[in-house]
Write a structure and sequence with these properties.
This protein has 108 residues and is an all-alpha fold. The chain is 95% helix and 0% strand. Helix 1 packs across helix 2 (88-107).
Length: 108
């Protein structure tokens, strides 16, 4: 029949073995978490690079559109200046009419 001393000794051994297994399991979980964390960081970095590339593409497109709009505005301004030089009386009449219409609208 086992005595209290041998039972306690046996439980101490099993407790130590259980503690060792828990520590091993904890280490394995930490290792897996670090590996998954590294994968998550890599995935986030890849996503950030894709977003940055798309943003750069959009910026290039917007820059091109802005330059095209600027060129069109310059062309329109040149045409307007030329029309004013060719027909100054018509230009003054149109400006006066626009002022009259704007004043009438603002009075309402």
């Amino acid at each position: 029949m086992p005595t209290a001393k041998t039972t306690k000794g046996h439980l101490d051994v099993e407790t130590a073995a259980l503690r060792e297994q828990v520590e091993q399991l904890t280490a394995a979980i930490e290792k897996m978490a670090k590996a998954e964390g590294a994968d998550a960081v890599k995935a986030a970095g890849d996503a950030a690079r894709q977003v940055a590339a798309r943003a750069a593409s959009i910026m290039d497109e917007l820059t091109g559109n802005a330059q095209a709009a600027s060129a069109l505005m310059d062309e329109g301004r040149k045409q307007l200046e030329e029309a004013i030089r060719e027909r100054p009386l018509t230009a003054i009449s149109v400006a006066a009419l626009a002022g009259f219409v704007l004043a009438a609208l603002l009075r309402r």
